[in-house]
Amino acid sequence: AQSVAQPEDQVNVAEGNPLTVKCTYSVSGNPYLFWYVQYPNRGLQFLLKYITGDNLVKGSYGFEAEFNKSQTSFHLKKPSALVSDSALYFCAVRDGAGGGNKLTFGTGTQLKVEL
Amino acid sequence: KAGVTQTPRYLIKTRGQQVTLSCSPISGHRSVSWYQQTPGQGLQFLFEYFSETQRNKGNFPGRFSGRQFSNSRSEMNVSTLELGDSALYLCASSGTRTSGPASTDTQYFGPGTRLTVL
Q1: What are the C-alpha distances in Å from A87 to residues A84, B36, B95, B112?
Q2: B86 CB near a chain A CB, below 8 Å?
Q3: A27-69 pLDDT tens trace
Q4: Residues of B with CB below 8 A from A49's CB?
Q5: CB B92, CB B32: distance < 8 Å
Q6: N or C: which end of chain B has fewer CB within 10 A?
Q7: CB contact burial B83-110 (16+ within 10 A = b; e otherwise)
Q8: If you count residue pairs, one on A and one on B, with CB atoms under 8 Å apart, how many are there?
Q9: Neighbours of B44 (CB within 10 A)
Q10: What is the pLDDT of residue A34?
């Protein structure tokens, strides 16, 4: 079985400050990890993914994430937050040992960036 | 390329009715997955279709079913609607892999269909 934990329901950060949204995962095989963002009344937008290779992954809109195998974490980061980054962020995992495209999502973290 | 499209965007039904939702994947994508999003349960996987075959299935009752057509378009059907079926139903499409281990392809999501059951 695969699972994802996002320990923070909400993260508040001031514009211009760095932000971190936390994610830990559990899978039996190799983890394929994803971050998505959801704006109100919209679907999910893909930000970035880790499949293999460098532990630091760069994605859309200046976001990046660091894969840490020993801590089974995949935290989302951005050096300087914008008010427009305020949205709901989801971490997801797929088991690389299995077939198909089934994603297991975390419960989501609401990011609020204030002026 | 055009993104994933879902129709209708909003739907209101009453208990006991059935509903069919439609999803058109990104051109060239052969895998279509469906997810249910609710405030209480979050995002949950329903099923995945690849080349007209169901490849994965989540833990939902048999009232939830789906299919995929030869052009990769997919529909999902919910019969005997219950109040708890009220949710945002999201469709996602990915890649062109024909077989092999878990796909490394990214899933791209449509805007969703908001279903309200009264």
Answers
A1: 8, 19, 27, 17
A2: no
A3: 988 899 999 999 988 889 999 999 988 999 999 999 999 999 9
A4: 106
A5: yes
A6: N
A7: eebbbbbbbbbbbeeeeeebbbbbbbbb
A8: 77
A9: 16
A10: 96
